[in-house]
Request: fold
Amino acid sequence: MLRANELPEDLVIQILLWLPVVSLLRFKSVCKSWYALITNQNFIAKHLLYNKNCNTQLLFKTRDKSNEDYVVSTISHETLQVSLTQPLPPYFELDVDEKFFIFVVGSCNGLVCLHDYLALHEVIWNPATKETKIVPKSNLPRIVPAGCYTRTEGIGFGFDAKTNDYKIINFLNIYNPRLSYYPSKNGVIFQIEVYSLRADSWRKVDGPPCFFSNREIIPGTYINGMASWAAYSNDWEESFLLSFDMSNEDFGRMTPCSL
Reply:
């Protein structure tokens, strides 16, 4: 029987590329060469590419009937069968009622972005490795008029293929609750901020004046480097699809849109 270090390298790579992440984590301890291979950024990129379309999963947060706690589950896109259920990451050591306000922003390449509505911050979570990254709160200046408040109106999570970076985009609505909850033509102020995982920091980006119509935070839909939201113009006269390119960091809009 051949030992691990006696197998042809090309054969080892081809075998490992088809294995799930959980198995790769175990096999890092086989030998030093396997550890170096599995943790190599080129191998990680190839592994994502090989497994991207093999087993499409849907991700959702639900409540476990056995203990009434909230969990994150994945179901097969083809069979609609639950393939994996696990609790929220240990960072969220909250009461059950408080966990109601944790929601899934989105997932990309095995990473999941979660938003804490009460604490107003995000966590990037890798369910396979159990690792979590607490996203620092933005320290960007926000000019808020007296009597007004800042609220996250929309949010998105995606991957920048050009720089191999993961990003969160946050739409902030500054509003006066004494006037009206919903923004109007004379009262809308938006500040749009983008977080870079690679830089571990936030920065401002320019975007079109618009808003989202729901009282809850609206997560974007992400596909092929583009995040999208259903949005409205400030005067409610136009609805459109607002998109954000994760690599170029510019916005696009498509109208008309049936919402």
In short: Helices lie at 9-17, 21-27, 32-38, 41-51, 96-99. The two ends are 62 Å apart (CA to CA).
